[in-house]
Design brief:
With 534 residues, this protein is mostly helical. It contains 22 helices and six strands. A hairpin with a 2-residue loop joins β5 and β6. α10 crosses α12. The longest helix is centred in the middle third of the chain and has 65 residues.
Length: 534
């Protein structure tokens, strides 16, 4: 049936809108609500300057307050103006915190030096954990460490959150050096400081991950090499047992005169088995043919230590680690070792802590004179360091992955203000005692269980019935009868959704109405494939 267009007056339409909103307890977004949205957006921008985060916060607030969602253009303008305000607030605060010398150091990151900008070299990430790649990462770390210390001081003073730091850092990757040079100097300084802060943390992540990976690789190499050495030793011992039996028969050989010098008998024994192999055979037989497999591993440690020193000592000198009081001895030993290696000295065996050596390893790490075997002790410390890092007992505050859990907590001053801050961010429940909330939830779920069971016993649930004291369930979703107009769609040719959207766009050009969320640096014409994909 064709329904003719009805001419509805504005007054009638408004009354219908008010009636529908009243039924759902919603209200329109008026001037008062606009001011609330702008204030909430500025508050959200201080937590994260990502446009999508601010937008989601606004939409969530409208849902909580039961306010009709305003037009997309209005929300876009609010987000853009809010982010501009937040950026100006931060750049204004930077002006009194960055000296001219520090500002010049930041400006030099955008200078073209022999065909390569300094910031471009800093952006590079190591491809692997090879010696060359790790040394390059260490060079980048030493280059940006002074600026990282500046960023720590400035970011803390200005109050930039970790999420905003990551967002502003991503803009340095997003924009080209040419576009960065065309921005306001203060804005570029903000972006660069956040980038240096984020890059230095990820640099420490790379070095620590590389350290753990290399230690694990060397430990695996030692185990595999020890297995091969044990296999060779056993095979050789089995071969030598036959020769050893022949040597023993020399004492029973009647052809050997009793006056024959023992040196002559020994020479004949050495002809059957070399002195070194004969000595190994005697030790093998004296130990009931059992092997000290750990001794084979420590011998392989001696062989692998040259490349261990070459690759791990530079990392140890650069990294700054912290830990719990239980790891104080290990941290003190690491400082002693790093200081000695930085001066080109050997491991100071007298100063390091012998308490770190487990009882089962002492016979291998100490020599016959009771002195520490330097290479073996160093390898032992590296293994302990990897284990403590992966367990979370040691941490690096200048990293993301290996930082302490306490580093992600708010400071004491902020925590004392939680009674005011939590309701402001819509987290009223977080301020209540957790046991009280759990008790309320337990009461609620008990009531729900009781209600559901009563409905089943009363026969009010059409999908569950009791049979022989057992619940019998039926499918809640049943196949529906075909609608009368379904065969119509079977007669129509099916097309993909992107083909349909392009067809509609050719008729009315609706894609031209889309605007980029940033509102700047966009192409003259919108990308239609990107819009269709969205």
């Amino acid at each position: 049936m064709v329904v003719a267009d009805l001419a509805v007056s504005e007054h009638t339409r408004q009354r219908h809108i008010e009636t529908v909103l009243g039924l759902f307890r919603y209200r329109l977004c008026a001037l008062e609500e606009w001011a609330m949205l702008e204030a909430h957006a500025r508050q959200a921008a201080r937590i994260s300057s990502r446009p999508v985060y601010v937008l989601r916060e606004l939409v969530d607030l409208l849902r909580q307050k039961r306010i009709v969602l305003p037009g997309y253009t209005f929300l876009q303008d609010v987000v853009r103006e809010t982010l501009t305000f937040e950026r100006k607030r931060l750049t204004g605060a930077l002006s009194g915190l960055i000296g001219e010398e520090d500002a010049a150091s930041l400006d030099r990151l955008l200078v073209n030096d022999e065909g390569l900008h300094a910031i471009t070299a800093i952006k590079r990430q190591p491809r692997d954990f090879s010696h060359k790649q790790l040394l390059a990462e260490l060079d980048r770390g030493r280059q940006i460490r002074p600026l990282f210390e500046l960023s720590l001081r400035v970011i803390d003073a200005v109050g930039v959150t970790a999420e905003s730091v990551r967002y502003y850092a991503s803009l340095v990757d997003y924009y080209t050096v040419y576009k960065l040079k065309r921005m306001d100097r203060e804005t570029v300084h903000l972006y660069l400081l956040c980038f240096i802060h984020d890059r230095y943390q990820r640099l420490n992540d790379n070095l620590l991950t590389g350290f753990c990976s290399l230690v694990r690789r060397y430990a695996d190499e030692v185990k595999e090499a020890a297995k091969e050495a044990i296999y060779r030793f056993k095979r050789q011992a089995n071969d030598d047992i036959d020769q050893g039996a022949k040597i023993l028969t020399l004492f029973l050989d009647p052809t050997i005169d009793g006056q024959t010098p023992f040196s002559a008998v020994r020479e004949r024994a050495h002809e059957l088995l070399a002195p070194e192999r004969l000595d190994h055979l005697c030790q093998h037989l004296a130990s009931d043919a059992s092997l000290d497999e750990a001794s084979f591993e420590w011998k392989e440690v001696d062989l692998v230590m040259p490349k261990v020193k070459r690759n791990l000592r530079p990392l140890l000198r650069f990294l700054s680690l912290q830990g719990t009081p239980a790891n104080a001895s290990l941290l003190e030993t690491l400082i002693i070792m790093a200081k000695a290696f930085a001066q080109g000295e050997t491991l100071p065996a007298v100063e390091v802590s012998a308490a770190l050596i487990p009882a089962r390893s002492r016979r291998y790490v100490f020599d016959a004179g009771g002195m520490i075997v330097r290479d073996r002790y160093e390898f032992l410390v590296y293994r302990l360091l990897r284990e403590r890092l992966e367990a979370g007992d040691l941490h690096c505050s200048d990293s993301v992955r290996f930082r302490s859990f306490e580093d992600d907590l708010v400071d004491e001053e902020t925590f004392r203000q939680r009674a005011d801050l939590l309701p402001r961010h819509g987290l009223e429940a977080a301020g209540r005692p957790i046991r009280e909330q759990l008790e309320e939830l337990r009461t609620l779920i008990d009531e729900r269980f009781e209600s559901v069971n009563q409905r089943i016993l009363a026969g009010e649930n059409a999908y569950v019935r009791m049979q022989d004291d057992r619940a019998v369930w039926e499918r809640a979703v049943r196949s529906q009868e075909a609608l009368p107009n379904e065969p119509l769609f079977d007669m129509v040719e099916r097309v993909d959704i992107d083909t349909l959207l392009l067809f509609v766009d050719r008729r009315n050009g609706f894609m031209e109405a889309f605007e980029h969320v940033l509102g700047r640096y966009r192409k003259a014409a919108p990308s239609k494939p990107a819009i269709i994909a969205s």
